[in-house]
Specification:
The structure is a homodimer.
Chain A: H1 3-15, E1 28-32, E2 38-43, H2 52-64, H3 66-80, H4 87-92, H5 97-107, E3 116-121, H6 133-139, E4 144-149, H7 159-165, E5 169-172, H8 176-191, E6 194-201, H9 215-227, E7 230-234, H10 235-241, E8 257-260, E9 280-283, E10 293-297, H11 300-307, E11 316-321, E12 324-325, E13 335-345, E14 348-355
Parallel strand pairs in A: 3-4, 4-5, 6-10, 6-11, 7-8, 7-10, 8-9
Antiparallel strand pairs in A: 1-2, 1-3, 11-14, 13-14
Chain lengths: ~350, ~350
């Protein structure tokens, strides 16, 4: 198959963690052995978690040799008093980066000699708490590294140069237009605000009448609430729905809230006002918002204003859509969206869309 | 990666041609070389076209050796006075099965020795116009064949036995529940009627007000019209929309039409009545329909009756959904659908759903 095929697998994996990696970019990585067999498809999942490349390298080694997996489990569980037993548990875990790097370097046994790595973003060259990803790839004897886009961040860039100087065949630019879309939130919040609008609706466009989305969708949304800097909500929604707006399904910190309203007379018994460690502000002008990552949870009126460009510079819409038709009125407005990514959360679909 | 990973690739490819293969089942096939590298991902596209296995084998050989591709193009173009130049053209073409089989047997050069094939359905054992797929796989020296479900068709079954007797490692049952869903239309029309309901709507559930779907979606729908035995449409839709209901975008034969109506007073100037080689009947009772493959193109009332089980035994709904919101009323009913497959046609999404 073509380089584009493998890069597409890496991109799809990266999209699953879009925004959740804040303030880091979403990055995906596919590793193939020297014969072209896929060994792993992984992504960076959350800031502080392993980068996509070491995650993919670790799982490639587990795939190649069960003994490496068993050794990892034994040593990791002893060292960090954990009780991980399966690949699935490791896959979800916040693994210690330093331990993983050292484990990889001590146990790879040249199994990844002449392997290939497909990465959506240039591997980092920055030696922070852990060695740079580019150095790790070099040390394992990879033969080819295929990069979609280069890192413009001055501290982290230079990975491709390190790889080339080590004699690795480096190809840059595969599916780069797609990866530029993937990277747009990161590029935007680095130098300004990335603001997205979240909508949950039925298969036939109904957004009212109680809970629309399934638990997987709501958990995903709570994870987002756990990483954003600010949640913006319309005053009417607060008065009618009396929401909590916390992130309990993800065991995460509830976000700060800005209520968009010209009136300030809210019933302070509404649950959102009583959430601990949360700031709530009431704004009649959203242009003052200067947080890097902002999610809007509004209703029809708010989406109309956004579609018309009347409030804020909202580039993306996140839609959770159930597979249920409801006998009720839909949200009504004229707006064309361009799909960037769609995935499934059980029977619900969710997707990231550009406002055209 | 696991057997499930490769079978899932085969399944996804097969779903793209769901119903379009009528009266054959939708079948997908992935071929990996002896090292586990993916060589091709193909499906059976249309009755009369190559089976999934020889299609995947042919493209695996093209992938392995450019000279085989060039030789194929030269010989095929001379033999059939064609002017195919690219893999893309070959991929879409109705290739002569006998020629392809003989070409494969004469030119494989043992390149597929010890390869693996993942097939959603047991390879056929029936020697018809061309050799059976099981024999072909045996002759090429495959080492492993992974089958999702076995063929219950007495004429075609027995492929797994042929493979096992040749010493090939045969594994059966990978993702079989998913493949059973894929095969449901085929199983149904073999012994009765498979009836599905087609709906085109905007992102927010609007089904009225002119053309909703893009040209790719409409072409897909015309391909379906080209293979079905009967198109059922509601009398009101005929009176209001005055449709042609042909299959011009797919250069296919327009389907026969049954209009569901208690009144018989249709304006015969309505375009659908003037399409050549078409039967039109007006039915006040749909239970008399006994064609194997039937598509319903109805409006809200018809879908409500189906959801309530009042008319026909409709198990599946095909939905084309644009990524555009419209400022208009939605279709309104209570029904829960279970997604079976979703794919993209440009900015539109389409999907097959089970009525729960």
């Amino acid at each position: 198959m073509s380089d584009e095929f493998y890069m597409d697998l890496a991109l799809n994996e990266a999209w699953k963690y879009q925004i959740l990696t804040y303030p880091n970019p979403a990055v995906g990585c596919v590793i193939c052995d020297k014969f072209g067999k896929i060994l792993s498809i992984k992504a960076h999942k959350k800031a502080g978690y392993l980068h996509a490349e070491p995650m993919a390298i670790l799982f490639a080694l587990f795939n190649l040799n069960d003994e490496i997996l068993n050794k990892f489990l034994n040593e990791y569980n002893v060292c960090f008093t954990q009780s991980f037993k399966t690949l699935t548990e490791l896959n979800e875990a916040d693994l210690d980066a330093k331990f993983c790097y050292e484990f990889i370097l001590s146990n790879h046994g040249n199994l990844l000699n002449d392997a290939s790595a497909y990465v959506t973003l240039e591997p980092c060259s920055h030696h922070g708490k852990t060695p740079a990803c580019a150095i790790l790839i070099k040390q394992l004897g990879f033969k080819r590294v295929i990069i979609s886009v280069c890192d413009e961040n001055k501290i982290a860039s230079g990975g491709a140069k390190i790889l080339k100087e080590a004699g690795i065949d480096v190809k840059i630019g595969v599916l780069k237009e797609h990866t530029k879309k993937l990277m747009l939130p990161f590029k935007t919040w680095l130098n300004g605000n990335f603001i997205f609008y979240k909508l949950a609706m039925s298969a036939n466009g109904v957004i009212t009448g109680g809970i629309i989305s399934n638990e997987l969708s709501r958990t995903h949304m709570h994870k987002l609430r756990g990483v954003i800097d600010l949640l913006v909500i319309g005053g009417n929604t607060v008065r009618v729905d009396r929401p909590v707006l916390d992130a309990r399904l993800a065991n995460a910190k509830a976000p700060d809230v800005a209520i968009y309203s010209t009136k300030r007379d809210f019933d302070t018994d509404i649950a959102l006002f009583s959430v601990k460690n949360r700031n709530v502000e009431i704004l009649d002008n959203l242009e003052v918002i200067n947080k890097p990552l902002v999610m809007i949870e509004g209703g029809e009126q708010m989406l109309k204003k956004i579609a018309l460009g009347e409030i804020l510079n909202v580039k993306w819409v996140l839609i959770y859509q159930s597979s249920e038709f409801k006998n009720a009125d839909n949200i009504k407005l004229d707006v064309r969206l361009k799909p960037l990514y769609e995935g499934r959360l059980g029977d619900d679909r969710y997707g990231w869309y550009e406002v055209c």
